[in-house]
Amino acid sequence: xxxxxxxxxxxxxxxxxxxxxxxxxxxxxxxxxxxxxxxxxxxxxxxxxxxxxxxxxxxxxxxxxxxxxxxxxxxxxxxxxxxxxxxxxxxxxxxxxxxxxxxxxxxxxxxxxxxxxxxxxxxxxxxxxxxxxxxxxxxxxxxxxxxxxxxxxxxxxxxxxxxxxxxxxxxxxxxxxxxxxxxxxxxxxxxxxxxxxxxxxxxxxxxxxxxxxxxxxxxxxxxxxxxxxxxxxxxxxxxxxxxxxxxxxxxxxxxxxxxxxxxxxxxxxxxxxxxxxxxxxxxxxxxxxxxxxxxxxxxxxxxxxxxxxxxxxxxxxxxxxxxxxxxxxxxxxxxxxxxxxxxxxxxxxxxxxxxxxxxxxxxxxxxxxxxxxxxxxxxxxxxxxxxxxxxxxxxxxxxxxxxxxxxxxxxxxxxxxxxxxxxxxxxxxxxxxxxxxxxxxxxxxxxxxxxxxxxxxxxxxxxxxxxxxxxxxxxxxxxxxxxxxxxxxxxxxxxxxxxxxxxxxxxxxxxxxxxxxxxxxxxxxxxxxxxxxxxxxxxxxxxxxxxxxxxxxxxxxxxxxx
Length: 562
Known about the structure:
Layout: H1 2-34, E1 36-44, E2 47-50, E3 53-57, E4 62-67, E5 80-85, H2 91-99, E6 106-111, H3 125-143, E7 146-147, E8 151-155, H4 158-172, E9 183-188, E10 200-208, E11 222-228, H5 246-263, E12 273-279, H6 287-294, H7 298-303, E13 304-310, E14 319-324, H8 331-346, E15 350-355, H9 369-374, E16 379-383, H10 407-426, H11 446-456, H12 471-483, E17 485-493, E18 498-500, E19 505-513, H13 516-542, H14 544-551
Family: Belongs to the nicastrin family.
Organism: Gossypium tomentosum
Subcellular location: Endoplasmic reticulum membrane
């Protein structure tokens, strides 16, 4: 009896061992089939609503086969993700697919490294400009369309290039990836996007107090220097806005640093207060600027002599524009323009004047100074761009990267503004007096400009995705605190017609999958193996007779009747 139990236990252990071996073989086979060919970071097309209408990519999760632009005519792309390198982009093809709402599983655009955060790219200037213009056109198409499938961006690298080359080869011979033929599968297992609840915007202001004369009880006049720091682009996780408006932010910080040196000494402190404002909500009708101005008491608002708004001054060659809302004949406007023109002439650069009257009945504003003008405060915007942008245009998109910004242009812009302001403050209008002369203790610092420009060019700043205490926002506050007094932060809810959704970036897994034919063959092999294994286990543990008996037809049982 004991012997029987032992041999039974031995047989049980043997059966378990063989079963484990079989399971291991099956798992190894599955792992080999499901191993990822590549895994890359991807950045989703923005999803937002404006006045109740849906725009951008409305989905995030992805689980489809990959295809290239070499797909055969008539191919069904409803369950395929088109991988399109920017260099190969046919904008007409993409526009037709989107506008005609043709079925598609998804889009993945591959961007050259010149648009990445890294300071890479050795392409010729002409090729860079071509790619920049093409990407700008693509971006405007995507952000103004309602796209019912996932759209992502990624940067070219060796892994994705190898995969794409393989996909192109299969597409070219008429074997696109499907469940039948196999190929590559793109998978992003992410939850569907949710609305961003009560997005906040944060304005930061600093103050340099002017010097009153003895016995003077009147309030000193104020000059405001303002720049909007947030961005908007097709991919929020990539919208760094090196030029728009990183260049304006850098210029404001350097101007604050220069005048802090002058105002730290009572002998050189001017008889003007200087107000520095870093505003948010710029792409959304300068919503933050409006809230900031409305927070001023009437006395402060009336003390503002004029405001200079800095926007996109990082990629100009020899000409800048001063945009105003009041007529050029206005005394204040003439004074501002003449002051800038005199300094510009000495620097051998040109400054033009652009007048655009605001429509009070229309809440839309094209430039930041127009929010000042609506409250009857004299203001102007200094920019390299001569024409007024459309809504959500030129707000720091994908194409606005570090490669296209020249810190020398920002340095010259800073000197132009600083010298013009100083001559106005110290009464040196029309005089060839250089307060911020090169090589002096008050010279513009190119290293300071470059360091801040590099930081801004690596920091996405789309307002709805920036928290109140975001490290970048706190860094701006700290920098203004170093150069100005009475630094304050104003937190407001972004109001208006916009609603935003999260899921701005993800990890894309690219799997090389086998065809159905291969799956059937594998299933046949595994089935045969399991049958053989089962037969072997029965023969070794119970004998051949027991195996044969399993396949015999059992004898019929006759039912006895009473």
